[in-house]
Protein backbone atom coordinates (compact mmCIF):
# COMPACT_ATOMS: atom_id res chain seq x y z
CA UNK A 1 0.00 0.00 0.00
CA UNK A 2 1.05 3.61 -0.43
CA UNK A 3 2.08 5.70 2.52
CA UNK A 4 -0.65 8.32 2.92
CA UNK A 5 0.83 11.83 3.10
CA UNK A 6 -0.09 13.83 6.20
CA UNK A 7 0.13 17.20 4.49
CA UNK A 8 -2.39 19.86 3.59
CA UNK A 9 -0.68 21.67 0.71
CA UNK A 10 0.78 19.87 -2.31
CA UNK A 11 2.17 20.99 -5.68
CA UNK A 12 2.26 18.44 -8.52
CA UNK A 13 2.04 18.21 -12.28
CA UNK A 14 -1.26 16.28 -12.32
CA UNK A 15 -4.00 15.92 -9.71
CA UNK A 16 -6.37 12.95 -10.03
CA UNK A 17 -9.55 13.17 -7.96
CA UNK A 18 -10.98 9.77 -7.09
CA UNK A 19 -9.37 6.35 -6.73
CA UNK A 20 -11.86 4.19 -8.59
CA UNK A 21 -11.35 2.54 -11.97
CA UNK A 22 -10.90 5.82 -13.87
CA UNK A 23 -8.67 7.57 -11.34
CA UNK A 24 -6.37 4.63 -10.67
CA UNK A 25 -6.18 3.65 -14.35
CA UNK A 26 -5.02 7.17 -15.23
CA UNK A 27 -2.47 7.27 -12.42
CA UNK A 28 -1.18 3.86 -13.52
CA UNK A 29 -0.74 5.00 -17.13
CA UNK A 30 0.90 8.28 -16.11
CA UNK A 31 3.44 6.47 -13.93
CA UNK A 32 5.36 5.43 -17.04
CA UNK A 33 4.69 8.49 -19.19
CA UNK A 34 7.76 10.67 -19.79
CA UNK A 35 7.27 14.00 -21.59
CA UNK A 36 9.53 15.23 -24.43
CA UNK A 37 12.09 16.30 -21.84
CA UNK A 38 12.17 12.77 -20.42
CA UNK A 39 10.36 13.66 -17.18
CA UNK A 40 7.52 11.58 -15.80
CA UNK A 41 4.81 13.70 -14.17
CA UNK A 42 4.41 14.12 -10.44
CA UNK A 43 0.90 12.88 -9.66
CA UNK A 44 -1.32 13.24 -6.60
CA UNK A 45 -4.32 10.92 -6.27
CA UNK A 46 -6.95 12.36 -3.92
CA UNK A 47 -9.08 9.59 -2.47
CA UNK A 48 -12.28 9.93 -0.47
CA UNK A 49 -12.16 8.84 3.19
CA UNK A 50 -13.50 5.38 3.91
CA UNK A 51 -16.37 6.55 6.05
CA UNK A 52 -19.79 8.11 5.82
CA UNK A 53 -20.69 6.10 2.71
CA UNK A 54 -18.55 8.33 0.47
CA UNK A 55 -16.55 5.55 -1.16
CA UNK A 56 -18.09 3.28 -3.74
CA UNK A 57 -18.65 -0.27 -2.38
CA UNK A 58 -16.86 -3.22 -4.04
CA UNK A 59 -18.12 -3.99 -7.52
CA UNK A 60 -17.43 -6.13 -10.57
CA UNK A 61 -16.19 -4.85 -13.95
CA UNK A 62 -16.28 -6.90 -17.15
CA UNK A 63 -14.81 -6.24 -20.59
CA UNK A 64 -13.57 -7.91 -23.77
CA UNK A 65 -9.83 -8.29 -24.33
CA UNK A 66 -7.48 -10.20 -26.59
CA UNK A 67 -4.41 -11.65 -24.91
CA UNK A 68 -3.01 -10.61 -21.55
CA UNK A 69 -3.78 -7.00 -20.65
CA UNK A 70 -2.13 -4.67 -18.14
CA UNK A 71 -4.39 -5.85 -15.31
CA UNK A 72 -4.24 -9.59 -16.02
CA UNK A 73 -3.02 -10.31 -12.48
CA UNK A 74 -6.32 -8.92 -11.15
CA UNK A 75 -8.60 -10.92 -13.48
CA UNK A 76 -10.75 -13.14 -11.27
CA UNK A 77 -12.16 -15.21 -14.16
CA UNK A 78 -12.50 -15.18 -17.95
CA UNK A 79 -14.61 -17.00 -20.53
CA UNK A 80 -14.46 -17.81 -24.25
CA UNK A 81 -18.22 -17.98 -24.88
CA UNK A 82 -21.26 -15.80 -24.23
CA UNK A 83 -24.84 -17.01 -24.12
CA UNK A 84 -28.06 -15.05 -24.63
CA UNK A 85 -31.40 -16.71 -23.84
CA UNK A 86 -34.62 -15.36 -25.36
CA UNK A 87 -37.98 -15.44 -23.55
CA UNK A 88 -39.27 -18.06 -26.02
CA UNK A 89 -36.41 -20.45 -25.28
CA UNK A 90 -34.18 -19.71 -28.26
CA UNK A 91 -30.51 -19.46 -27.32
CA UNK A 92 -27.65 -17.63 -29.01
CA UNK A 93 -24.18 -19.07 -28.37
CA UNK A 94 -21.46 -16.51 -29.07
CA UNK A 95 -17.92 -17.97 -29.39
CA UNK A 96 -15.34 -15.26 -28.74
CA UNK A 97 -12.40 -16.78 -30.64
CA UNK A 98 -9.15 -15.14 -29.54
CA UNK A 99 -11.03 -12.63 -27.39
CA UNK A 100 -11.90 -13.34 -23.76
CA UNK A 101 -14.67 -11.86 -21.64
CA UNK A 102 -12.89 -10.92 -18.42
CA UNK A 103 -14.02 -10.12 -14.90
CA UNK A 104 -12.18 -7.92 -12.43
CA UNK A 105 -13.39 -7.10 -8.93
CA UNK A 106 -12.65 -3.60 -7.72
CA UNK A 107 -10.73 -4.63 -4.54
CA UNK A 108 -8.37 -6.82 -6.62
CA UNK A 109 -7.87 -4.04 -9.17
CA UNK A 110 -7.17 -1.48 -6.45
CA UNK A 111 -4.69 -3.74 -4.68
CA UNK A 112 -2.79 -4.46 -7.92
CA UNK A 113 -2.58 -0.82 -9.03
CA UNK A 114 -1.70 0.49 -5.57
CA UNK A 115 1.07 -2.10 -5.30
CA UNK A 116 2.50 -0.93 -8.62
CA UNK A 117 2.08 2.73 -7.77
CA UNK A 118 3.92 2.30 -4.47
CA UNK A 119 7.20 2.08 -6.40
CA UNK A 120 7.41 5.29 -8.47
CA UNK A 121 8.67 8.11 -6.21
CA UNK A 122 6.74 10.78 -8.13
CA UNK A 123 3.31 9.47 -7.11
CA UNK A 124 1.52 10.68 -4.00
CA UNK A 125 -1.75 9.83 -2.31
CA UNK A 126 -4.01 12.04 -0.22
CA UNK A 127 -7.14 11.13 1.71
CA UNK A 128 -9.62 13.98 1.58
CA UNK A 129 -13.22 14.87 0.87
CA UNK A 130 -13.03 17.08 -2.22
CA UNK A 131 -15.32 20.13 -2.24
CA UNK A 132 -14.34 21.73 -5.55
CA UNK A 133 -11.91 21.44 -8.44
CA UNK A 134 -11.32 24.59 -10.47
CA UNK A 135 -8.86 26.60 -12.49
CA UNK A 136 -6.32 28.43 -10.35
CA UNK A 137 -6.25 32.18 -11.11
CA UNK A 138 -2.48 31.99 -10.64
CA UNK A 139 -2.26 29.32 -13.33
CA UNK A 140 -2.96 25.61 -13.45
CA UNK A 141 -5.70 23.99 -11.39
CA UNK A 142 -6.43 23.63 -7.70
CA UNK A 143 -8.27 20.93 -5.73
CA UNK A 144 -9.84 22.03 -2.44
CA UNK A 145 -10.91 19.56 0.24
CA UNK A 146 -10.70 18.54 3.88
CA UNK A 147 -8.87 15.60 5.42
CA UNK A 148 -10.56 13.15 7.84
CA UNK A 149 -9.76 15.46 10.77
CA UNK A 150 -11.44 18.40 9.07
CA UNK A 151 -8.22 20.25 8.19
CA UNK A 152 -8.13 21.94 4.79
CA UNK A 153 -6.33 20.25 1.91
CA UNK A 154 -5.17 22.05 -1.21
CA UNK A 155 -3.55 20.44 -4.24
CA UNK A 156 -2.14 22.70 -6.96
CA UNK A 157 -1.46 21.09 -10.32
CA UNK A 158 -0.77 21.93 -13.93
CA UNK A 159 -3.75 19.75 -14.85
CA UNK A 160 -6.56 18.20 -12.81
CA UNK A 161 -8.71 15.17 -13.72
CA UNK A 162 -11.93 14.64 -11.79
CA UNK A 163 -13.27 11.07 -11.84
CA UNK A 164 -16.01 11.43 -9.21
CA UNK A 165 -19.27 9.97 -10.57
CA UNK A 166 -21.90 12.66 -11.11
CA UNK A 167 -24.94 12.79 -8.87
CA UNK A 168 -26.78 15.08 -11.29
CA UNK A 169 -26.60 14.20 -14.98
CA UNK A 170 -26.39 16.66 -17.86
CA UNK A 171 -29.73 17.37 -19.52
CA UNK A 172 -30.87 14.52 -21.77
CA UNK A 173 -33.77 13.59 -24.01
CA UNK A 174 -33.82 10.05 -22.63
CA UNK A 175 -32.42 8.70 -19.37
CA UNK A 176 -32.78 5.11 -18.26
CA UNK A 177 -31.01 3.45 -15.36
CA UNK A 178 -29.28 0.10 -15.50
CA UNK A 179 -29.82 -1.07 -11.94
CA UNK A 180 -29.00 -4.45 -10.49
CA UNK A 181 -28.40 -6.57 -7.44
CA UNK A 182 -26.17 -9.63 -7.47
CA UNK A 183 -25.51 -12.63 -5.27
CA UNK A 184 -22.21 -14.47 -5.11
CA UNK A 185 -23.61 -17.96 -4.60
CA UNK A 186 -22.15 -21.32 -3.66
CA UNK A 187 -24.21 -24.37 -4.64
CA UNK A 188 -24.32 -27.78 -2.99
CA UNK A 189 -23.98 -29.52 -6.40
CA UNK A 190 -22.56 -28.71 -9.83
CA UNK A 191 -24.78 -26.06 -11.41
CA UNK A 192 -22.75 -23.86 -13.78
CA UNK A 193 -20.84 -24.13 -17.05
CA UNK A 194 -17.51 -22.42 -16.24
CA UNK A 195 -16.69 -21.82 -19.93
CA UNK A 196 -19.67 -19.56 -20.73
CA UNK A 197 -21.24 -16.38 -19.41
CA UNK A 198 -25.01 -16.04 -19.35
CA UNK A 199 -24.79 -12.49 -20.69
CA UNK A 200 -28.51 -11.85 -20.96
CA UNK A 201 -31.09 -14.38 -19.81
CA UNK A 202 -34.49 -12.93 -20.65
CA UNK A 203 -36.45 -15.69 -18.92
CA UNK A 204 -37.42 -13.11 -16.31
CA UNK A 205 -40.69 -11.15 -16.05
CA UNK A 206 -40.37 -8.22 -18.47
CA UNK A 207 -41.47 -4.66 -17.59
CA UNK A 208 -43.80 -2.79 -19.95
CA UNK A 209 -40.95 -0.42 -20.83
CA UNK A 210 -37.27 -1.25 -20.76
CA UNK A 211 -36.16 -4.79 -20.02
CA UNK A 212 -34.94 -7.19 -17.35
CA UNK A 213 -32.55 -10.13 -17.48
CA UNK A 214 -30.45 -12.50 -15.47
CA UNK A 215 -26.65 -12.33 -15.69
CA UNK A 216 -24.45 -15.23 -14.60
CA UNK A 217 -20.66 -15.13 -14.29
CA UNK A 218 -19.55 -18.69 -13.36
CA UNK A 219 -16.51 -18.86 -11.08
CA UNK A 220 -16.52 -22.66 -11.08
CA UNK A 221 -19.05 -25.44 -11.40
CA UNK A 222 -20.58 -24.61 -8.02
CA UNK A 223 -19.87 -20.90 -7.64
CA UNK A 224 -21.01 -17.84 -9.60
CA UNK A 225 -22.06 -14.24 -9.46
CA UNK A 226 -25.76 -14.18 -10.33
CA UNK A 227 -27.36 -10.80 -10.95
CA UNK A 228 -30.84 -9.54 -11.64
CA UNK A 229 -30.69 -6.44 -13.88
CA UNK A 230 -33.27 -3.98 -15.20
CA UNK A 231 -33.11 -1.12 -17.67
CA UNK A 232 -35.88 1.20 -16.48
CA UNK A 233 -36.64 4.67 -15.18
CA UNK A 234 -36.11 3.99 -11.46
CA UNK A 235 -34.41 1.43 -9.21
CA UNK A 236 -36.30 -1.17 -7.22
CA UNK A 237 -36.51 -1.56 -3.47
CA UNK A 238 -34.08 -4.05 -1.95
CA UNK A 239 -36.83 -6.56 -1.20
CA UNK A 240 -37.92 -6.43 -4.85
CA UNK A 241 -34.39 -7.30 -6.04
CA UNK A 242 -34.24 -10.13 -3.50
CA UNK A 243 -37.56 -11.50 -4.67
CA UNK A 244 -36.44 -11.35 -8.31
CA UNK A 245 -33.16 -13.11 -7.47
CA UNK A 246 -34.96 -15.86 -5.56
CA UNK A 247 -37.23 -16.39 -8.56
CA UNK A 248 -34.35 -16.41 -11.03
CA UNK A 249 -32.00 -18.70 -9.06
CA UNK A 250 -34.75 -21.02 -7.87
CA UNK A 251 -37.38 -21.24 -10.60
CA UNK A 252 -35.43 -20.30 -13.74
CA UNK A 253 -31.96 -21.71 -13.02
CA UNK A 254 -33.13 -24.38 -10.59
CA UNK A 255 -29.99 -24.11 -8.49
CA UNK A 256 -31.35 -25.99 -5.53
CA UNK A 257 -29.52 -25.57 -2.23
CA UNK A 258 -27.40 -22.41 -2.39
CA UNK A 259 -25.55 -20.15 0.01
CA UNK A 260 -25.24 -16.42 -0.65
CA UNK A 261 -21.70 -15.50 0.39
CA UNK A 262 -21.64 -11.86 -0.76
CA UNK A 263 -23.86 -9.29 -2.48
CA UNK A 264 -23.36 -6.28 -4.71
CA UNK A 265 -25.69 -3.64 -6.02
CA UNK A 266 -25.37 -0.72 -8.40
CA UNK A 267 -26.96 1.90 -10.63
CA UNK A 268 -25.47 2.90 -13.99
CA UNK A 269 -26.91 5.86 -15.93
CA UNK A 270 -27.85 5.11 -19.55
CA UNK A 271 -28.46 8.45 -21.18
CA UNK A 272 -28.08 10.41 -24.41
CA UNK A 273 -26.78 13.39 -22.41
CA UNK A 274 -23.60 15.05 -23.60
CA UNK A 275 -20.99 14.80 -20.85
CA UNK A 276 -18.55 17.71 -21.01
CA UNK A 277 -15.01 16.42 -20.72
CA UNK A 278 -13.67 19.86 -19.90
CA UNK A 279 -14.66 21.65 -16.68
CA UNK A 280 -12.13 24.49 -17.08
CA UNK A 281 -9.01 25.44 -18.97
CA UNK A 282 -6.99 23.05 -16.80
CA UNK A 283 -9.70 20.79 -15.36
CA UNK A 284 -11.06 17.69 -17.10
CA UNK A 285 -13.59 14.98 -16.28
CA UNK A 286 -12.87 11.29 -16.82
CA UNK A 287 -14.72 8.01 -16.32
CA UNK A 288 -18.52 8.09 -16.17
CA UNK A 289 -18.37 11.84 -15.49
CA UNK A 290 -16.44 12.23 -18.75
CA UNK A 291 -18.80 10.14 -20.88
CA UNK A 292 -16.96 6.80 -20.66
CA UNK A 293 -20.13 4.77 -20.05
CA UNK A 294 -21.61 3.34 -23.27
CA UNK A 295 -25.18 4.68 -23.29
CA UNK A 296 -26.91 1.52 -24.56
CA UNK A 297 -25.00 -1.11 -22.57
CA UNK A 298 -23.49 0.48 -19.45
CA UNK A 299 -20.00 -0.89 -20.18
CA UNK A 300 -17.34 1.55 -18.95
CA UNK A 301 -14.06 -0.18 -18.06
CA UNK A 302 -12.62 -0.54 -21.57
CA UNK A 303 -13.45 3.08 -22.47
CA UNK A 304 -11.73 4.23 -19.28
CA UNK A 305 -8.55 2.48 -20.45
CA UNK A 306 -8.75 4.21 -23.83
CA UNK A 307 -9.16 7.58 -22.13
CA UNK A 308 -6.20 6.91 -19.83
CA UNK A 309 -3.96 5.84 -22.71
CA UNK A 310 -4.82 8.99 -24.70
CA UNK A 311 -4.15 11.31 -21.75
CA UNK A 312 -0.79 9.66 -21.00
CA UNK A 313 0.12 9.85 -24.69
CA UNK A 314 -0.73 13.57 -24.77
CA UNK A 315 1.58 14.13 -21.79
CA UNK A 316 4.38 12.28 -23.55
CA UNK A 317 3.96 14.50 -26.60
CA UNK A 318 3.77 17.72 -24.60
CA UNK A 319 0.19 18.39 -25.70
CA UNK A 320 -2.90 19.52 -23.80
CA UNK A 321 -4.10 16.25 -22.20
CA UNK A 322 -7.80 16.67 -22.92
CA UNK A 323 -9.60 13.30 -22.72
CA UNK A 324 -10.88 12.16 -26.12
CA UNK A 325 -14.53 11.20 -26.68
CA UNK A 326 -14.96 7.70 -25.28
CA UNK A 327 -17.44 6.69 -27.99
CA UNK A 328 -17.85 7.73 -31.62
CA UNK A 329 -20.59 10.24 -32.42
CA UNK A 330 -22.45 7.81 -34.67
CA UNK A 331 -22.48 5.15 -31.92
CA UNK A 332 -23.85 7.66 -29.43
CA UNK A 333 -26.52 8.59 -31.99
CA UNK A 334 -27.53 4.94 -32.49
CA UNK A 335 -27.60 4.43 -28.73
CA UNK A 336 -29.85 7.49 -28.35
CA UNK A 337 -32.35 5.96 -30.76
CA UNK A 338 -32.35 2.65 -28.90
CA UNK A 339 -32.79 4.32 -25.52
CA UNK A 340 -35.77 6.26 -26.85
CA UNK A 341 -37.33 3.14 -28.35
CA UNK A 342 -36.93 1.26 -25.05
CA UNK A 343 -38.16 4.14 -22.90
CA UNK A 344 -41.34 4.57 -24.97
CA UNK A 345 -42.08 0.84 -25.04
CA UNK A 346 -42.06 0.79 -28.86
CA UNK A 347 -39.45 -1.94 -28.81
CA UNK A 348 -39.36 -5.03 -26.63
CA UNK A 349 -35.91 -4.96 -25.05
CA UNK A 350 -35.79 -8.72 -24.64
CA UNK A 351 -36.69 -9.34 -28.29
CA UNK A 352 -34.37 -6.58 -29.52
CA UNK A 353 -31.24 -7.90 -27.83
CA UNK A 354 -32.18 -11.52 -28.43
CA UNK A 355 -32.52 -10.95 -32.18
CA UNK A 356 -29.35 -8.86 -32.20
CA UNK A 357 -27.33 -11.85 -31.00
CA UNK A 358 -29.23 -14.45 -33.01
CA UNK A 359 -29.00 -12.63 -36.37
CA UNK A 360 -25.44 -11.28 -36.37
CA UNK A 361 -22.03 -12.95 -36.54
CA UNK A 362 -20.25 -12.89 -33.21
CA UNK A 363 -17.18 -10.98 -34.39
CA UNK A 364 -19.29 -8.23 -36.00
CA UNK A 365 -21.46 -7.82 -32.93
CA UNK A 366 -18.52 -7.70 -30.52
CA UNK A 367 -16.85 -5.01 -32.62
CA UNK A 368 -20.08 -3.03 -32.48
CA UNK A 369 -20.46 -3.39 -28.72
CA UNK A 370 -16.83 -2.37 -28.26
CA UNK A 371 -17.19 0.67 -30.55
CA UNK A 372 -14.84 -0.68 -33.25
CA UNK A 373 -17.37 -1.54 -35.98
CA UNK A 374 -17.44 0.03 -39.47
CA UNK A 375 -20.46 1.78 -40.92
CA UNK A 376 -21.37 -1.05 -43.30
CA UNK A 377 -21.35 -3.50 -40.38
CA UNK A 378 -23.65 -1.16 -38.49
CA UNK A 379 -26.05 -1.06 -41.44
CA UNK A 380 -26.19 -4.87 -41.35
CA UNK A 381 -26.76 -4.82 -37.59
CA UNK A 382 -29.48 -2.19 -37.98
CA UNK A 383 -31.34 -4.37 -40.46
CA UNK A 384 -31.72 -7.02 -37.75
CA UNK A 385 -33.61 -4.62 -35.48
CA UNK A 386 -37.29 -3.48 -35.62
CA UNK A 387 -36.86 -0.90 -38.37
CA UNK A 388 -40.07 1.16 -38.13
CA UNK A 389 -40.11 1.67 -34.33
CA UNK A 390 -36.44 2.62 -34.49
CA UNK A 391 -37.04 5.06 -37.36
CA UNK A 392 -39.93 6.69 -35.51
CA UNK A 393 -37.70 7.12 -32.46
CA UNK A 394 -34.92 8.60 -34.59
CA UNK A 395 -37.25 11.10 -36.28
CA UNK A 396 -38.63 12.49 -33.03
CA UNK A 397 -35.32 12.86 -31.21
CA UNK A 398 -34.39 16.29 -32.67
CA UNK A 399 -37.58 17.91 -31.32
CA UNK A 400 -37.47 16.44 -27.84
CA UNK A 401 -36.63 18.68 -24.90
CA UNK A 402 -33.61 17.80 -22.82
CA UNK A 403 -34.29 17.41 -19.09
CA UNK A 404 -32.08 17.10 -16.02
CA UNK A 405 -31.91 13.82 -14.12
CA UNK A 406 -30.45 12.65 -10.82
CA UNK A 407 -28.59 9.36 -10.36
CA UNK A 408 -29.95 7.69 -7.20
CA UNK A 409 -27.51 5.94 -4.90
CA UNK A 410 -27.80 2.13 -4.89
UniProtKB/TrEMBL annotation:
InterPro entries: FAD/NAD-bd_sf. Gene3D superfamilies: FAD/NAD(P)-binding domain. Pfam families: Lycopene_cycl. This is Lycopene cyclase family protein. It comes from Streptomyces macrosporus. The lineage of its organism: Bacteria, Bacillati, Actinomycetota, Actinomycetes, Kitasatosporales.
